[in-house]
From TrEMBL:
Coiled coil: none annotated. This is ZP domain-containing protein. InterPro entries: Snake_toxin-like_sf, VWF/SSPO/ZAN-like_Cys-rich_dom, VWF_type-D, ZP-C, ZP-C_dom, ZP-N, ZP_dom. Residues 187-368 form the VWFD domain. Pfam families: C8, Zona_pellucida, ZP-N. PANTHER family: ALPHA-TECTORIN-LIKE-RELATED, ENDOGLIN/TGF-BETA RECEPTOR TYPE III. Keywords: Disulfide bond, Signal.
Amino acid sequence: VSILSLSKQMGHTTIPVESLVKVVPFISAFQVNFTNDNTVFCFNGFYNPGTKGDCLVAPKAEDGQMAIYGRSDGIQMVVNIFVPTITNSMNCSVLLNLGSTVSVAADAPGVYTNVLNFDTLRPVEGIAFSDVSGCRYLGLPYKVGSVVSSDPKTCQSLTCSTADVLTHSACGPLDRCGRNGICSFDTICTVTGPAVIDIQGHKNSVEDRCAYSLLSIPSVPNFLVLANFQERRRKDVSFLDSVTLQVAGSGVQIHLIQGGRVLLNNSSMVLSSSVQLVNGVELSKDNTGVTAKVSLSNFTTSVFFDGYTAQIRVQGPSGSSLQGLCGNSSRPLSGLRLSEHSSTSCETQYSDTSDSTINCTMVTERCNLLKKAPFSSCNIDPEPYIKACSDTLCRYPAVDGLPCQFLEAYTRACSLMSNTTLEGWRTVAECSSPDAFCQDQTCIDNEFCGETSGGETRCFCRSIFASPYREISALGTPTVCSQNSASLTLIGCLLAEKGFDYSALHLRDPTCTGQVDEKTHMVTFSFNSNSCGTQVMTNSTEIIYKNTIMAQNSSSDIITRQDQVHIDFSCIQTQPDLKTVAFRIRDSSVVQVITSGPWTYTLTMKAYTDASRTQAVDPSTEVQLNQKIWVELATDGLDANVVSLVTESCWATNQASPDGGLRYDLILNSCPNVADQTVTMQGNGQGTSNYFSFNMFQFSGSSGEIYLHCKLQLCVKQESSCIPVCSGARGRRSIRSRYEAAFISMAWTT
């Protein structure tokens, strides 16, 4: 312990403490000032009423004592009891005794005394204590809890903490300083190609074709942004294909699809640049893409999708956190995969042969443009974008706008997050206008929109879907055959791949064109044996129906150009086996007595096996399948000079009733049925008898019973011509006077 006596006559003095260094090594000098009003003890220079300083300001005193102590457990205990705000361990203490006033300054690491007026001390059991510890900044002391400095423009402040430490505070890495000087959560996530660049700036890649959770907010239940990934030209590289917003509370699912298409719960929507509010979601569309914006529970989420890149901006309270690939893309992907939105085979990995046309060094140099002007003026780290660019273009050809896609994504992120417009970057990178790629181009699930070598956009087949067809050089599914008809379905994107315009294709008959299914982009051509120029060929065992899909003015059998397409397809049916079936007539002939008007006559139906009608068929005669039979219809009792017998129709059934069961027409409108070339008719309407012939047949899938029925009319010769005129498919005749029709039937059995 060192004690020094002080007196007012000293004025002001500096007390060297070389002799005290061993006891209190932190003290280099201690200044004492005697003013007209105060006695001041300072630790950092003489007292200046203007700047004050690190001093103890006491009432005026005539004399006093100062004692400097080393570490004292007793004083430590007193301080801990009466000044509980001081929790540090002391190194030393200074005792100042000015008459009836005593001051103790205790030092601990990081603790500095402050200006103290002794009159403010409160008495506690005869002793007054006060915590005057604080922080020193730029030579000035600050009390605990006081703000040393603050900049509302940057939201940065310097505060003397309760631990007597200067604490610097600013907006977090995912926050932004608002105009009111308050930090708020404001961040962006970019998904482009197979890459996900999360809000931390970490890059990850999706290698399969599944759906993943991109974004969910712990404090906002039932809200989810998910992404679907699909392959394109290669089976082993996946790309962002669509984005879906789920707002479960309102039952809304909004699908953002390539081509600027938007589905609301699977129903197509028509959008424009004007905002359309749908169940709390603001939707709009311009030439660059589609934007969906939703505000829930103090959070605002905006999703932009141009068909190839999605950028999600989230704004909310400071210190917020996000989940999903956008929250932390470094998480294992299996935990974020959404099986309910994915196909069962989405995790299957494929491999493709390396593309020898890819120059990885060259594409990496292009990706590194993001390090140069004008991109370098953006304060967003370009490295994850460069990595996403080079990783993709070293495996996948630089087509479909990919060379500019990653640069476009970085530029848009800069515009959104730092209000930086990278003027002239399109010129430097040789990228065209900001119009969305494939805008308003509609492709189905098995297709994606890409760019042809000529710079035009169209729907291409996805690699996995098209692979089995390409392996066998097929353009569609196998021919579907059904009896005497056939159909062939071609795949629209495979036709386009070969340069074929389906609207110009037709069968041998140019009027027979393909039917396009707008939902599947499939083109179907159909024909039967007697239409669309179908060729029918037979041999001993087969019947072949053949047709050709060709283009207008096609003249070549070599598929080389659109106007030279020839796609032959056919159906081969097995020739029906010839059966030996014997028919027997139940009766030698059928005779009916008929009264019609003034005439009463006898009508006889009789069958023969020869054209001269001399070999009558009787119950013992066996008639073979396909054997020609002649049937004569003759009358007795009519005057041939007055009336004629006209056979109007004859038909066969598999039941006794003329109107029951299966029916096959032999005579129609007094003429042979043109559909059966074996039927002939002689003498019809020329006299009181006539006959017809046909080849014996059997009803398919039926029993051997065949019933032959005929309907006949009497025609008065003097009034009109009674002979039917048979030409083409229908007969015609003019009979002015007819009498009640006669019906007659004959039964056959195997």
